[in-house]
User: Which sequence fits this backbone?
């Protein structure tokens, strides 16, 4: 039996079926559980052949109405979602740097039925000590707020600039020496940016197609310039850049863009 199915069955028996009534419409718990799984997959960091680390602290943002409906059960639902994340990590052979927690928060910019997931890696002191001994001796981490959502935990090893096995996207063009190379990483796949604009979305016409129900057909566009920027194209759920919900933002090496339940990492390097 799959992790999501087991999670759904546990919810059905909780509080005499209260969860089933609460989730009769709008946001469904299995949707949130699936988004948490994708958040783990999108932010998995390979340290060595035996260890892949994923976030362990999650925030599920809900509309005002959905949050108020769920607030009385947030503690128990958070525990169930945390258990589901642990089960999924065990199945995928992921590891954590600390205890797993899932929190619910209210987001005024979300409409009823919509939600957004953010995550970060919080390292316990024991994990930090182990990390110092197991840190890979390559790659450099972008400067980010310690422990911030979408950032590296304090004391964690640097994230590799590209996951092992990452491949270039279709139509990529080698960049001449001395020029700035730009690319994005989605689910371990590298897509080169070799044109002035790059459209991302669910449509087959997009330059980079993202198979995510929370992503619009033409969701956003990366524009190469000084500095490079990302622009929302009137999408339904918008974009979150380095933890901030926005319609337009400047990109830097290591910027994390969330569209739907998918995380995109922007990269650039000289030469």
Assistant:
């Amino acid at each position: 039996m799959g992790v999501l199915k087991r999670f759904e069955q546990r919810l059905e028996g909780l509080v005499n079926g209260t969860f089933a009534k609460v989730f009769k419409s709008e946001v469904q718990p299995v949707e949130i559980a699936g988004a948490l799984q994708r958040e783990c997959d999108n932010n998995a960091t390979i340290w060595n052949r035996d260890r892949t680390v994923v976030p362990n602290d999650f925030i599920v943002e809900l509309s005002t109405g959905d949050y108020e409906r769920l607030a009385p059960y947030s503690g128990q639902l958070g525990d169930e979602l945390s258990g589901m994340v642990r089960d999924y990590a065990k199945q995928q052979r992921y590891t954590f740097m600390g205890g797993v927690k899932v929190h619910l928060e209210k987001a005024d910019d979300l409409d009823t039925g919509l939600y957004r997931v953010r995550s970060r890696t919080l390292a316990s002191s024991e994990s930090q000590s182990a990390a110092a001994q197991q840190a890979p001796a390559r790659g450099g981490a972008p400067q980010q707020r310690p422990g911030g959502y979408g950032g590296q935990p304090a004391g964690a090893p640097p994230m590799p600039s590209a996951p092992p096995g990452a491949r270039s996207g279709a139509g990529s063009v080698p960049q001449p020496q001395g020029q700035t190379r730009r690319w994005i990483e989605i689910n371990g796949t590298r897509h080169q940016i070799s044109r002035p604009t790059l459209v991302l979305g669910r449509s087959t016409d997009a330059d980079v197609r993202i198979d995510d129900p929370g992503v619009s057909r033409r969701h956003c566009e990366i524009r190469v310039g000084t500095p490079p920027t990302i622009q929302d194209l009137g999408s339904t759920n918008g974009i979150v850049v380095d933890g901030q919900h926005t319609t337009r933002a400047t990109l830097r090496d290591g910027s994390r863009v969330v569209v739907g339940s998918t995380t995109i990492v922007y990269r650039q390097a000289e030469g």
